[in-house]
Amino acid sequence: MSTDFAALSRLLDERWTCRAFAPTPVPRVEIERLLALAQRTPSWCNTQPWEVIVTSGEETGRLREALGAYVMSQPQASDFEFPTAFPGAYGDRRRECGFQLYDSLGIEKSDADGRFRQMLRNFEFFDAPHVALITVEADLGPYALLDTGIYVSSLLLGAQALGLAAAPQAALAGYADFFRAHFGLPENRRVAVGMSLGYAAVEEPVNGFRTTRADLADVVAWHGSWA
């Protein structure tokens, strides 16, 4: 096994979604290193359709307060349709992840209020000092969104390599109109995903569980002759 493969394997094995952050801000130079790394992400015809807004300090606080109020008074309005159902194995995996999350926090399945409060933590950015809002060019179609997803993966692995914690959040994209107004986004930008970013509060129980992955037999079909 090459050292490069081993390093990538370790990053993928150890990466996780942080749901409780320490208040310590990340130096801008470190976030710039992360963004410069992710900018090397491949894209269709090298279009690089992503753009990023990153907050820090008082701006993160203002964003948290404004979004919290908006979420409690306005319906979701995402730029991309959210799934209405998760059939078969997709639903099983989603439920398993949810059960692990609630178990780590001691929230019973019957505790609807507790689950709701935890859902709202998304809009508090899990107390992260920084938020990255990733947008995509509207006119380039679904493949631009695919490219942007690859970019998000680069951000997540880069953050892991730099000792940072991150939480990619579709929940934030569910309020695209809010972000469009708050940041004055132009009409050609669509909100793809948000990401809370900082250092992990490692002592918090919610950061202690890890999700599983499907076996290759569940996702790979082999055709032809193989050595």
UniProtKB/TrEMBL annotation:
<dbReference type="Pfam" id="PF00881">
    <property type="entry name" value="Nitroreductase"/>
</dbReference>
<keyword id="KW-0560">Oxidoreductase</keyword>
<dbReference type="GO" id="GO:0016491">
    <property type="term" value="F:oxidoreductase activity"/>
</dbReference>
<dbReference type="InterPro" id="IPR050627">
    <property type="entry name" value="Nitroreductase/BluB"/>
</dbReference>
<keyword id="KW-0285">Flavoprotein</keyword>
<dbReference type="InterPro" id="IPR029479">
    <property type="entry name" value="Nitroreductase"/>
</dbReference>
<protein>
    <submittedName>
        <fullName>Nitroreductase</fullName>
    </submittedName>
</protein>
<keyword id="KW-0288">FMN</keyword>
<dbReference type="InterPro" id="IPR000415">
    <property type="entry name" value="Nitroreductase-like"/>
</dbReference>
<feature type="domain" description="Nitroreductase">
    <location>
        <begin position="13"/>
        <end position="199"/>
    </location>
</feature>
